[in-house]
From TrEMBL:
It is found in: Secreted, Extracellular space, Extracellular matrix, Basement membrane. Gene3D superfamilies: Laminin. Residues 1-175 form the Laminin IV type B domain. One of its GO terms (cellular component) is cell junction. Keywords: Basement membrane, Cell adhesion, Coiled coil, Disulfide bond, Extracellular matrix, Glycoprotein, Laminin EGF-like domain, Repeat, Secreted, Signal. This is Laminin EGF-like domain-containing protein. InterPro entries: EGF, Laminin/Netrin_ECM, Laminin_IV_B, LE_dom, LMN_ATRN_NET-like_EGF. Residues 593-643, 690-717, 772-799, 957-1099, 1128-1162 form a coiled coil. It comes from the Eukaryota. Disulfide bonds join 181-193, 183-200, 202-211, 229-241, 231-248, 250-259, 294-303, 408-417, 459-468, 487-499, 489-506, 508-517, 535-547, 537-554, 556-565. GO terms for biological process: animal organ morphogenesis; axon guidance; basement membrane assembly; cell migration; substrate adhesion-dependent cell spreading; tissue development.
Length: 1182
């Protein structure tokens, strides 16, 4: 799984617990040197769990064989150590100790990377390699191909078939046969293993043949492999951690999983020091010392400031607690307008820092250019909104209470200066108001001022332009002050539709005249399209040389008459131009004739009314057919089960189409309709003119007959009167002839117009007839679609509401009934969806409750775990103290034993006994020497003098030689006795000192043993309590697991119900989509029918008011159809919303299931950890 870094003075420990066959194994160390030079002092120690079996294969193993010093060469990557006999079924510890003698002692980074160790069976212990010549040949072949070197390195090269054959045989012998891979599914990548050795393919940081445990230095065995311990190199004792929790072995004063933190309440790792939080926090940041979770409304690195909205001095020196800012009320009261306040160091009073727009010592008034009611609870100050049309440097720009702007600038006005003043226009927001420029001739002053945005002046009729200074196209006479009039230029006689803007004169073609170019040229009369004749007006009797443009009659002066104004007028006598009135008799006669003429006009008008009201007779057949169709539609509406709301929605949609189609239709047939209407009116006028002409002709005939009779009578009675009557009759006849000419001209125009109308009608009759036929077919199609839709509604009711309901079922309702589904309608999609939603809501609430309980239990388990960890730490400390005391006791005992042995050795040594030494000392003291030291010295000098004066020295020396030798021997014996005595005295003193020291050591040992016994008893009590708490925690964990299992069962049941509901919802959705498709088709057909129907309705509406009734009925039909479509769409939307809600609930359940699954996994890990620790603590107690 990777290398392990080894430094000088460190050691690595390998656990070997998979020995299958007792035999000798070669130990191979795989490593990777990091620096040049050999690592000369590496000790390999094998720790056996028990003595070697004297009757087993390893009976000859010696203790010294378990210690093997080696040197790791920098030129190699592995080293093979002499064989060591290991017994099957036992667990061994193989330690590698790296002595502090690296190849480069001066380098602080001296280290080496160790990958792993390998145990290779010794060939001498393999039966088929020893004992026969064939076995020797096999061994030679095995060594020849260097088969054993395949396992020396981690990366294996290609292995020959010969080596594989031997490896399989060796494996079969060592493991006693072939075995299944049994790869751990959690730690292995697959269930397959290497045929040679059976090693499985492990996940990252997972080791073992079966990939069933974490590698050293990793933890958290799980589906993702194992994670590195990453123990802090400063705070941890080593880089090994707990396999289950990942907890590293921490140094004193360190804390955390990786031993990378200080204890709670301390910081500045690794030089930990207490947090300075002024009593407002218990912990601080481990790196910066910043206090965590400051209490009492404090904040800051040392909890030495009040939070926003509070004031005070929370430091230990000030000791003024933080209080809410009164600005004017507190934030909690909702009546505060300052986020920050401070305590004045001099006055010790609070100083509010008001929000923008507030002022005053307590922020209880609005600042300048702000308005509001801050003195009231819930009030506020708002910025005066004058659209930037005020001078903020001036006070009083707006009312302080209402906010109304009082000093608007830049020609603006309004509550917020948001618009330009009257007679100004533009962008008031951007200070761009400009004075309006309105033309006095074209402006309607009574309509107010110009538009404040665009500057558009209110124009008179047919006047255009932003300043109302021009007539519309084809209009003139703006100077009238009443608006512009239409030019009405004749399209045949004028060159264009635009006339002169000042006199209205159209630009006439050659041969045409008049203002509108619809007459003959000046001083001519007649039809310009046929012939123009010159006027023959008498210059003296005519008011103007321009005669009547229709009949050529001249306009005469008063009293002048005649066609050419060359005779006296009716009622005048004389010779033109000198004419005088006839008198009172003629005036009376003329009044009678005028009365008769007025009565005749009334009769003619009545005839016109009859003619007008009878015009609809030509369309009687079409109206009858329409009435029949409308009756059928009415009957269909009465029989339908669709609600008015349903049809109303459809009608709303069709109304929109009708508006668009009407505009298109109007634009297409507007010209045709106008032409048809004009032609019809002209035909009516021509008919009336013809009728009047016939009446006048009859009257003329009757008048002529009467005049003839009267003429004869007058001739006989009064020749002058008869002459006058005859002249008057002649004038009247000429007038009638002139009127007849005018009537003939109008008749000719009417005939020409009729011809043009007939051509136009003939051109559009086919389209009109086709439109009527299309309308009829569209109405029939709409009837069929509505009938088909009505047939489908019961089936849809059955699927959604569980009853066929036609139209409504009493229990389950249906479409348009106001309700759907119920208690007895469980098979309906609506009821199923409602129940599913209710069940999902209840399940969600239960899941939340269970999750809260699980979270509470989890917190309990976490607390128990924390307490267990604390107890474990206490027990570890107690165990460490007991171990130290035991070590000290053993050391003292060992020292005492050594001292006793030394004393025994000294006492048992051969030599003078104490009694002999005592006797010798007594004899020496009994010697009586009377001389003083000075006398002895003087005596010695004398002796020397005497000796010097002697002449025969040799003789004397020879005579005294024996005495001298005896004296010398006595002296030597005395010296030896003195030395022995001194030695005995020194030894005795040393013995006494030793006894005193041994007594002190025994007192210390007794004290340490008593302390150790006390610690052990306390540890036993703590471990007993831990065991009890662990049992309770395990019981709680078991209860949690039981509840989680029950919750999983409920989740499974809920999932089953949701799947069933989902299936039902999908079926309902399919039916709804089918129905929606049919409704869309019906809507498309209805739109097509509506388009055709609108064409017919608009055409008939132009000719008869009766079509309004048909339109109203069709409108109601379309409203009902629109309502039905809208209801159907709403139902479909509800079904889609239900489906969306179902999916969201399904996703939420999936998420909850995953969360519960993860919680189970975490609970399982915690239970395993608790069980392991429980077993460990029990073993410690035992």
């Amino acid at each position: 799984p990777g290398f392990m870094l080894a430094r000088p003075g460190s050691d690595l420990e390998f656990i070997v617990d998979n020995i299958k066959t007792s035999m000798e194994y070669d130990i191979v160390i795989r490593y990777e040197p990091k620096i040049a030079g050999d690592w000369r002092q590496v000790e390999v120690t094998i720790e056996r769990p028990s003595p070697v079996d004297p009757n087993g294969p390893c009976a000859n193993a010696r203790p010294q064989d378990d210690y093997k010093p080696v040197a790791l060469s920098s030129d190699a990557r592995y080293i093979a150590i002499a064989p060591t006999c290991l017994e099957a079924g036992k667990t061994y510890k193989i330690k590698l100790m790296f002595k502090p003698d690296p190849p480069q002692p001066s380098s602080p980074t001296a280290s080496i990377l160790v990958d792993s160790i390998v145990l290779l069976p010794s060939l001498e212990n393999i039966p088929f390699f020893v004992g026969s010549p064939i076995a020797d040949n096999r061994k030679k072949e095995y060594l020849h191909y260097q088969c054993g070197s395949a396992f020396f390195t981690v990366i294996k090269g290609p292995i020959s078939d010969i080596c594989k054959k031997y490896h399989y045989s060796i494996g079969y012998y060592v493991y006693g046969g072939a075995f299944s891979c049994s790869c751990d599914p959690t730690g292995s990548l697959s269930s397959l293993c290497d045929p040679m050795g059976g090693r499985c393919q492990c996940k990252p940081n997972v080791v073992g043949r079966r990939c069933d445990r974490c590698a050293p230095g990793t933890y958290g065995f799980g589906p993702e492999g194992c994670k590195a311990c990453d123990c802090n190199s400063v705070g941890a004792l080593d880089n090994f951690c707990s396999v289950s929790s990942g907890q590293c072995k921490c140094q004193a004063q360190t804390y955390g999983r990786a031993c990378d933190q200080c204890q709670p309440g301390s910081w500045n790792y690794p030089k930990c020091q207490r947090c300075q939080c002024n009593g407002h926090a218990d912990t601080c940041d481990s790196a910066t010392g910043a206090c965590d979770s400051c209490r009492d409304f404090t904040v800051g690195h040392n909890c030495d400031r009040c939070i926003e909205g509070y004031y005070g001095d929370p430091s230990l020196a000030g000791d003024i607690p933080c209080r809410p800012c009164p600005c004017p009320g507190t934030l909690e009261s909702g009546h505060s307008y300052a986020d920050h306040c401070e305590l004045d160091p001099q006055s010790r009073d609070v100083v509010c820092e008001c929000d923008e727009g507030y002022a005053g010592s307590r922020c209880d008034v609005c600042a300048d250019n702000y308005y509001g009611n801050p003195e009231e609870v819930g009030g506020s100050c708002n910025l005066c909104n004058c659209s930037n049309n005020m001078d903020i440097s001036r006070p009083g720009n707006c009312d302080p209470h209402s906010g109304k702007c009082l000093q608007c600038l830049f020609n603006t006005e309004g509550f917020n200066c948001e618009r330009c003043k009257d007679n100004y226009f533009g962008d008031a927001i951007n200070q761009l108001c400009t004075e309006c420029v309105c033309d006095i001739l074209g402006t309607n002053n009574s309509a107010g001022s110009c538009d404040g945005i665009t500057g558009q002046c209110p124009c008179l009729p047919n006047v255009i332009g932003i300043s109302c200074d021009a007539c519309e196209k084809n209009h003139w006479k703006i100077a009238s002050g009443m608006g512009c009039e239409a030019c009405d230029c004749d399209p045949n006689g004028s060159k264009s539709d635009q006339c002169n803007l000042y006199d209205g004169q159209c630009d006439c073609k050659s041969g045409f005249g008049g203002r509108q170019c619809n007459q003959c040229q000046t001083n001519h009369w007649g039809d310009p399209n046929v012939e123009c004749k010159p006027c023959e007006c008498n210059p003296e009797g005519s008011a103007t040389l321009q005669c009547n443009r229709d009949n050529g009659s001249c306009i005469c002066h008063q009293g002048i008459g005649g066609y050419n104004c060359d005779v006296c007028a009716r009622g005048y006598l004389g010779s033109a131009p000198h004419c005088s009135p006839c008198g009172e008799c003629f005036d009376n006669w003329d009044a009678i004739l005028n009365n008769l003429s007025e009565e005749t006009d009334k009769v003619i008008q009545a005839a016109r009314e009859i003619k007008r009201t009878g015009a609809t007779g030509a369309y009687t057949q079409e109206f009858d057919r329409m009435e029949k169709e409308l009756k059928d539609v009415k009957q269909l509406l009465q029989n339908t089960t669709k609600s008015t709301i349903d049809l109303g929605h459809i009608d709303t949609y069709i109304d929109k189409l009708r508006v668009g189609l009407k505009e298109s239709h109007d634009s297409l047939i507007n010209g045709v309709g106008k032409e048809l209407e004009n032609a019809t009116q002209r035909i009516y006028l021509s008919n009336l003119a013809l009728a009047e002409l016939r009446i006048r002709v009859n009257e003329l005939k009757e008048t002529a007959s009467a005049l003839k009779a009267n003429a004869t009578h007058l001739q006989e009675s009064n020749v002058e009167g008869a002459l006058n009557l005859t002249r008057e009759a002649a004038d009247h006849s000429r007038q009638i002839v002139a009127k007849g000419s005018v009537t003939q001209n109008e008749t000719g125009n009417a005939e020409r117009q009729c011809k043009r109308t007939e051509i136009l009608v003939g051109r559009n009759s086919a389209q009109f007839t086709q439109g009527q036929q299309d309308n009829s077919r569209a109405v029939d199609k709409l009837d069929q679609d509505l009938t088909q839709l009505e047939r489908n509604i019961p089936e849809l009711n059955n699927q959604v509401c569980h009853k066929m309901g036609d139209p409504c079922d009493q229990l389950c309702g249906g479409a348009g009934c106001g309700f759907c589904g119920g208690i007895s309608c469980e098979d309906g999609a609506y009821t199923k969806s409602s129940k599913a939603f209710s069940f999902a809501t209840d399940a969600e609430n239960k899941i939340y409750e269970k999750e809260a309980k699980a979270e509470e239990l989890f917190r309990g388990i976490s607390q128990a775990k924390q307490e267990t960890s604390s107890a474990k730490d206490v027990a570890s400390e107690a165990l460490l103290a007991a171990s130290n005391a035991q070590n000290r006791s053993e050391t003292s005992v060992q020292q005492s034993s050594d001292l006793i042995k030394r004393l025994e050795g000294f006492l048992n040594t051969e030599g003078a006994t104490a009694l002999e030494i005592q006797n010798l000392a007594s004899q020496a003291q009994q010697k009586n020497i009377q001389l003083k030291p000075e006398q002895i010295t003087e005596l010695a000098k004398n002796i020397n003098t005497t000796i010097a004066s002697l002449t025969d020295i040799n003789t004397i020396l020879a005579d005294t030689a024996e005495d001298l030798q005896l004296a010398q021997e006595s002296k030597d014996e005395a010296d030896r006795a003195k030395a022995k005595a001194e030695n005995v005295l020194t030894t005795a003193q040393t013995f006494l000192d030793t006894l005193v020291e041994a007594e002190e050591i025994q007192e210390k040992i007794k004290t340490a043993v008593d302390s150790a016994n006390s610690n052990i008893e306390q540890a036993k009590i703590d471990l007993t309590q831990i065991t009890s708490e662990t049992g309770e925690a395990q019981q709680k964990a078991n209860e949690t697991v039981t509840e989680v299992n029950q919750l999983q069962e409920q989740v499974k049941t809920l999932q089953t119900g949701f799947l069933k509901n989902g299936k039902d919802a999908q079926e309902v959705k399919a039916e709804a989509e089918s129905m929606t498709e049919e409704v869309k088709q019906a809507e498309d057909r209805a739109r097509e029918m509506q388009s055709q129907y609108n064409l017919a309705v608009n055409t008939l509406r132009d000719h008869s008011d009766d079509s309004v009734l048909a339109q109203t009925r069709a409108q109601k039909l379309l409203e009902k159809a629109s309502q039905l479509s809208l209801n159907t769409t709403d139902k479909l939307k509800q079904l889609k919303d239900a489906e969306t809600q179902y999916r969201e609930q399904k996703n939420e359940l999936t998420s909850l299931t995953d969360a519960i699954k993860k919680l189970n996994e975490r609970m399982g890990v915690y239970l395993i950890d608790i069980n392991k620790k429980s077993v460990t603590y029990r073993n410690c107690l035992n």
